[in-house]
Amino acid sequence: MDLKTILAPIADDMRQVDATIIARLRSEVVLINEIGHYITSAGGKRLRPALVLMAARACGASGDEPVLHAAMIEFIHTSTLLHDDVVDESGLRRGRKTANAVWGNAGAVLSGDFLYSRAFQMMVESRRMKVMDVMANATNAIAEGEVLQLLNCGDPDTDEARYMRVIELKTARLFEAGCRLGAIAAEQNDAVEQAMYNYGHHLGLAFQLVDDVLDYTADSTVSGKNVGTDLAEGKPTLPLIHVMKHGDAASSALVREAIANGRVDLLDDVLKAVESTGAIPYTRALAERHSLKAVESLGEIPDSPYKNAMIELARFNTNRAA
Predict the structure, then answer these.
(1) Is 272 helix (H, G, I), strand (E, B) or coil?
(2) Other CB atoms closer than 10 Å to residue 17's CB: what's the count?
(3) Do 231 and 270 meet the contact criterion of CB atoms below 8 Å apart?
(4) Residue 92 pairs with which residues in a beta bridge?
(5) What residues contact 94, with CB distance under 8 A and at least 6 apart?
(6) Which of 76, 155, 278, 299 is deepest in the core (most CB within 10 A)?
(7) CB-based contacts of 157: which residues, under 8 Å, 6+ apart?
(8) Interatomic CA distance for residues 11 and 138, integer angstroms
(9) What value, to the nearest 5°, has the Cα angle with vertex 77 and ends 168 and 113?
(10) Residue 246 contacts by C-beta under 8 Å, 6 or more apart in sequence?
(11) How many CB atoms lie within 10 A of CB 319?
């Protein structure tokens, strides 16, 4: 089953989200309009706003509040992408030039700030203190995760626990928040909120684990990302950590050198080490375990097309190619 089919139950809601994004992007500053539209029109899976909508409808929410929350979540996510690409000195995302490559670092960072602050304006519109609380904590955690990842870059002593903490903060937190906002919009009890939080937590971890696998296995024409990008940035992701822990002395030393100095010229040898140690199956198996836990989290949620979509999304994630 493809992603479009999975998300069919919220197709009308997603069109409203797109319309809301376009409307809320408007600014009297031309550069903000240009960069904002460039980034939001770049495609992408729109998973985070989709999660808000699926969770809200699965919990019985009606009306337009979930649409507002979904657009707000996408603005937060987009602002982090703008900032990430500057920090990582990235030139390509989703198969085309990054905003910083087109307009420079200053324009990208400041436009990211605009999207971030616009998201908080939208949070206030919900008039729910709980929404503000969830999102304030989530965005703070994301910032912590980004800083922790920065500290890990170039450090071959990063272990699996440190890696998992990074992806919990920088990726899973926004998934958790989006799913929890769905339950809040439906005015559900704490148990349902927790179930949605747990689903988002495990799906977010699985999503990042698969992303880190794809950095070493994906077809760049499909994923829009060159193989070995994380290696070039000195990021010790789980496939590399697995090699350093379970590979022979030569393989471990090779990967340590590649991480410490961003040795993308060693990519072919690193790929061989990744393959010989079973690092990809190991990482995929962990992603699958978290996907199963995500599905289990929905056990007490009433059956509906929206719950089914959330289940299928967790299954889809482990096998995606981009």
Answers:
(1) helix
(2) 25
(3) yes
(4) 97
(5) 42, 43, 44, 224, 225
(6) 76
(7) none
(8) 26
(9) 120
(10) 277, 278, 279
(11) 12
Question: Closest Cα partner for 145 from 174, 183, 186, 106?
Answer: 174
- What domains are defined for the chain? 3-319 (1.10.600.10)
Whole-number pLDDT of residue 80: 92
Rg over CA atoms, the chain: 19
Report, as ranges of residue numbers, the positions in the chain whose pLDDT lies below 50. Answer: none
Instruction: Report helix angle 160-167 to 238-246, nearest 10.
Output: 170
Q: Which of 189, 36, 192 is nearest to 119 (CA)?
A: 36
DSSP string, 240-286: HHHHHHHS-HHHHHHHHHHHHHT-GGGHHHHHHHHHHTTHHHHHHHH
Q: State how far the Cα of 23 lies from the Cα of 321, in Å rounded to an integer.
A: 32
Predicted pLDDT at 73: 96
Closest CA to 171 of 132, 123, 203: 203
Cα 147 from chain centroid (whole Å): 16
pTM reported for the whole predicted model? 0.93
Q: What is the reported pLDDT for 230?
A: 87
Strands 96-97 and 92-93: antiparallel
Helix, strand, coil distribution of the chain in percent, nearest 5: 75, 0, 20
Write out the two tokens for 234.
């000195």
* CB-count exposure of residue 28 (10 Å: 0-12, 13-18, 19+): exposed
pLDDT at site 268: 93
As a dihedral over the C-alpha atoms of residue 174, residue 180, residue 182, residue 184, rounded to 10 degrees, the angle is: -130
Residue type at 143?
A
Both ends of the chain: CA-CA distance in Å?
Answer: 15
Phi (first) and psi of residue 43, to 5 degrees: 95, -135
